[in-house]
Amino acid sequence: MRIMITGGAGYIGNELVYRLSAEPSVKDILVYDNLCKGNYNLFTGLRKVPGHNVRFIQADILDSRSLRSSMEGMDVVIHLAAKVEAPFADQNAHDFEQTNHWGTAEVVYTAEEVGIKRLIYLSSQGVYGHGDVTSSEHPRVPESFYGLSKMRGEDHVLRLMEKIPVQLVRCANVYGYSKNLRFETLVNQFIFDAHFTNRVAIHGDPGHTMTHISLYRLVEVLARMVKRDMDSDVYNLSHRSMAAGELVEALKELYPELETIFVDQHIPLKDLTMACDERLEALMPGDGTMLEDLVKFRELFTF
Known about the structure:
The chain is an alpha/beta fold. It has 2 domains: 202 residues, NAD(P)-binding Rossmann-like Domain (Rossmann fold, 3-Layer(aba) Sandwich), CATH 3.40.50.720; 79 residues, UDP-galactose 4-epimerase, domain 1 (Alpha-Beta Complex). Helices cover 35% and strands 22% of the residues. The protein has 9 helices and 14 strands. Strands 3-2-1-4-5-7-11 form a 7-stranded parallel β-sheet, with helices on both faces. A 3-stranded mixed β-sheet has the order 8-10-12. A two-stranded parallel ribbon has the order 6-14. Helix 3 links the parallel strand 4 and strand 5. The longest helix has 22 residues. The N and C termini lie far apart (41 Å).
């Protein structure tokens, strides 16, 4: 099997490359990334990829010529490349539109032209905006430039479903360790602040609830999807819903003297909770608690 991963040097892609490289059935992994965030950690360090099946092309998904030449001959394309939400969900609308909308359109057009066998696209629960999402039939009402650009990208992917197998995965907020670690997401930022400053700040209503999934579980689900025949469909992927205040209480199990600062706690925020599709839930490894995940994360700090 030959796999191309757009955004393969990023926060999620980095760990997925390591995971898929260990699969005997995967003969070739092409990491396609423009390195716009300076993500060079995939290429250095004592931790080697398990197989000798990884190669790299530095290019942008908006570069149709490079995209086409790179995608030819691939069996599966896993499209991760995106401009991410936090903390700039409502800034630089043009950047979101270019990457998440038109960049995804280029990936879809190229996949159709070269005749790849399968596309897996990682979208976001942000397309729902807010509410209690029980299925992928829930209305999409994005409330940020990020969510809107992901929804527009989805529309191109949905069109491709009529022609080849496509799995569109709307993913919850991701947390956890990667060599290309992001600290602007809620859980990662909170544990960093707790560990190194013994202080966290909750902005807005501490009861504000969102759905999360650990990076380890996300990568494992994607890797298992690659090895299975799956229906062309939209899938919601999540693991647990947690309020900001509940996350702080879990952190206090590790840091009993943790100081909590409340900023504008009287301002209500719209909750977004999303149930996991049973088909993906069946692929997810062990349940585990948030406290257990935080303990594992803390062990990876250097001091």
